[in-house]
Amino acid sequence: MAIELLKGNEAIAEAAVRAGVDAYFGYPITPQTELLEYMAKRMPELGRVFLQAESELGAINMVYGAACAGKRAMTSSSSPGVSLMQEGLSYIAAAEVPVVLVDVMRGGPGLGNIAPSQSDYFQMVKSAGHGDFKPIVLAPASVQEAVDIMDLAFDLADKYRTIVTVLLDGTIGQMMEPAELPPMKPRRTAAPGWALTGAADRSKNMILPFRLQVDDLEAYNLQLQQKLALIAHSEVRYHEQMVDDAELIVVGFGTAGRIAQTAVRLARRQGIKAGLFRPITLWPFPERRLSQLADDARGFLVVEMNAGQMVEDVRLAVGGQAPVKFLGRMGGSLPMPDDILAAIVKLDQASTRAQPDAPCTIEGPSMPLKHFVSVN
Q1: Cα 211 to Cα 87, 135, 161, 199, distances in angstroms
Q2: Residues 368 and 326 in one domain
Q3: Hey, what long-range contacts does 218-226 have (CB within 8 A, 24 or more apart)?
Q4: How many other CB atoms are there within 10 angstroms of residue 1's CB atom?
Q5: How many domains does the chain have?
Q6: 158 pLDDT exceeds 90?
Q7: In terms of domains, do 256 and 148 share one?
Q8: Which band of pLDDT confidence, cut at 50, 70 and 90, is reported for residue 367?
């Protein structure tokens, strides 16, 4: 397999094609539109289904219908568009059909802008729609990792009959990097036993997105929680760098985690024992591993491109064993390695003399404090 220079959105689209996607439904919104454009050309070439819906509402319900028929179906959008899809996502979760969603995040709230952000963390990890369900959420940090994750996303969706969200910010969607595409997988021809095929020669199937009786709905929810517990036990993924002897752990996902690895290397050159922990599954969150790291760490620094969202999960995982500090940029701004390094140095100085619950204010030195978010 040859390594090619690929744009993130287009690489993700081709990876989905090679993973065997049968149908794509979507609606254009920056910064993910290239993914839809690529699918508009590629899917018909292969005799597969592409349809640009009249809106994100239409797109997610078309995905729902194709998934009920046992087809590998997906959509993609960006932050405001995903907000419109949330009712449909909840129906898909209730029906327990496999669906893949790519969310290329942009600045918010509201219409925001088309610059990269990570402010959809709460939306996708904590809710993704009404009701007691959680999608699997995968967060790549490079074009190659996004390519690799697409095949995994479809496999996990099929395995657990669940929604899998590939959550990346606009930087990864728009950047060009060398990447290796996987070989073309054969498409699945036989429909799964649970699917609605319209066949008259087998017993009737029903897929229900509702249970009107209280006892029935509670029984279904208990069953769903058992499946979520199995996923939480079996499907945790993360990347570590220099954590074996680390005293300070920097935590970041996607682009923020990628930028942070430069700051960690710079800190090591200054004699600070820093390490990087990058969650790949945002749900299930790698809380057990972070708790283990907290046994020996003097402090944690969480870096995000938002006002502080994943930091709440890190604090829960650390459980007060060490200080957890936060550095965030918003509105499409990126944290820079020098700013993260300055925060690591400040945390190093403070954590050598502070108790775990002592305040430690962190902000980047290269811009005024008003440009940064700092949580004590």
Answers
A1: 16, 20, 18, 25
A2: yes
A3: 221/132, 224/96, 224/132, 224/133, 225/132
A4: 7
A5: 2
A6: yes
A7: no
A8: very low
